[in-house]
């Protein structure tokens, strides 16, 4: 007797924040999914993510908010500085001490966020070393071809596979646009540093660059630096962590950035990696008029709407979007179940 091929209910491509968040949301609703991740482990590229109140509402709905609060400090202030004059441009207070006001702002370590989203998933939800290279339609199903030559079928396909999304390409979304800027990000473990106890976000606006720092916990400081590459050498420096740090420091030391902030980047451990990449985005009209979904396939997160990190809304928007996706999915299932019950009742009456 021929063995029937297994068909997955939901396949999510990509085990980043949006992919794991979608899988966890479905799990909370009682729906099983399979997450395909091209790497051999969870990737924490980007080091940290700034999360504002709208992101925390979504994290609480997913049931991971309290776990993340235990390991990340509540940020108290936002300070915007001019790196040209050294003056403070603006300042905003979020909270005083541990008292929670309306603005809950924290800088989450990406590896801990991924851990929080994945720890409650059923075993074997995530399948590593599973890179999707091609997608076909087989009736109402999607047939996924993987890099190792295997295939699998799914009733629903959700692409959370980042800026180089295979699913977005299959849907016909146009290629991403280069913003003209590049960004580097890193992290420093400085338990005895006075700057690690400030519990704030600091932004610096300089000549053709922006920089910022925020505090993840009592010991860890996250930093980012965005700039406009002015020549080919600067573009090529992105491939080498040592060269990119030298490039950043040369720009900062010619400005009026505080010495202790420059030292954060100077002392960052290159063995932990230093992420640098061109910043890309999707043209807003592509989101309005493009095929962001097709029958039982759609995209979410960076595969749908990549954003530059200085906006600070990447995680908030993707988490809110996946909650909307989950609500629509559950509503659709309920409507299908109702139609099936009515169909069964009509058949019983005829019989």
From TrEMBL:
Superkingdom: Eukaryota
Pfam families: FAD_binding_3 (PF01494)
Domain FAD-binding: 9-264
Keyword Oxidoreductase: yes
GO molecular function list: monooxygenase activity
Statement: the UniProt record of this protein carries the keyword Oxidoreductase: yes
Keywords in alphabetical order: Monooxygenase, Oxidoreductase
SUPFAM superfamilies hit by this protein: FAD/NAD(P)-binding domain
PANTHER family: FAD/NAD(P)-BINDING OXIDOREDUCTASE FAMILY PROTEIN, OS03G0153100 PROTEIN
Family in the record: Belongs to the 3-hydroxybenzoate 6-hydroxylase family.
Protein name according to UniProt: FAD-binding domain-containing protein
